[in-house]
């Protein structure tokens, strides 16, 4: 009987231990930590983790994406060159869509003037590298993406090495020199290129080198040189800082870049590329969008034709001088020292003269009317450099009124004012009494004379 009771107690203890063990296991399985790791682990049956199904479910159910499209996004490696107005929205939507690896190239730091349009940056990250600021924002949006920062400007010697690690490239820069460089590197490395630009209230978008083929292949997509064989005149190139940019305009173009990239990634491997085209956007036009058909590869293209002169060696050796090719002229320095005065000289001249005197110096402000209305010097005259030559020809009285007076020409940065001085001297055949440029423009005026002058 004693042995029977002892056996019964042992059985009860064993049963209790088994029950306790089962409860412990069940508790661990139901814990938030276990559920998190289960959600993150790829499901061998379906290819994505439970967390990925939840995160991307709204696009997964679309036939244009589906499971295979999402898996292609997860495997894709995308490089964004430029983390500014275009790169911020483009990277945000690509990260949100679940692109597996996202590289960002930019050597600039965040400035306060960027924040009205570069939505990945914030006030507390001013002076931080743009790529670091953008990645901090993107990680908050989707921590599952592999982000790779390239904290430097793209150069001919580094472009091919960087591009080799990626499948698709987005040109989110704002100058012809970088556009030609990025396109050439994409042709040589066999990468499709999604290129966009935006200025003032207008934007352009095109997909280049798609499908990517070796130079000389007739079935390859055109490159940037095919569309624009010659760069625009250097004096016609206007930056956002000079011409202005409406934030939503550059945002629209960046989002469209992300959309075109997602379409490229999720398309079946053997899907035919659409005909090359250029999408034009104008915020104040009706309709806002127009599509222009582009020609195929040019037979004489320096980059992608059979007789191409842009090669890997010419690119990496530095013999391709993109700055010289595009004819960059800024900052302008065309006047002799005798034809220029400093901001302090301007202050002294204005302080010693009475505006009521018939021979008082004339301050000629050659900024556009919008900038002139933002801020201007008392009694200054607005004569915008844009269209100045035509206006002087149509109204000869302007030059007559300026003769016999000391004329001081000023603009925002001191570039247009030099060109205006040169033009006025030429068109007056040297009959002006005195005409001088204010060196450094209103930026110098703010730094040297009036610290409260608006900095825009």
TrEMBL record:
CDD domains named in the record: ThiF_MoeB_HesA_family (cd00757)
Pfam families (alphabetical): Rhodanese, ThiF
Function summary: Plays a central role in 2-thiolation of mcm(5)S(2)U at tRNA wobble positions of cytosolic tRNA(Lys), tRNA(Glu) and tRNA(Gln). Also essential during biosynthesis of the molybdenum cofactor. Acts by mediating the C-terminal thiocarboxylation of sulfur carriers urm1 and mocs2a. Its N-terminus first activates urm1 and mocs2a as acyl-adenylates (-COAMP), then the persulfide sulfur on the catalytic cysteine is transferred to urm1 and mocs2a to form thiocarboxylation (-COSH) of their C-terminus.
This protein's name: Molybdopterin-synthase sulfurtransferase
Gene3D superfamilies the record matches: NAD(P)-binding Rossmann-like Domain, Rhodanese-like domain
Gene Ontology CC annotations of this record: cytosol
SUPFAM superfamilies per UniProt: Activating enzymes of the ubiquitin-like proteins
Domain Rhodanese, chain residue ranges per copy: 357-454
Superkingdom of origin: Eukaryota
Record's keyword terms, sorted: ATP-binding, Cytoplasm, Metal-binding, Molybdenum cofactor biosynthesis, Multifunctional enzyme, Nucleotide-binding, Nucleotidyltransferase, Transferase, tRNA processing, Ubl conjugation pathway, Zinc
Annotated compartments: Cytoplasm, Cytosol
One Gene Ontology term of the molecular function aspect: thiosulfate-cyanide sulfurtransferase activity
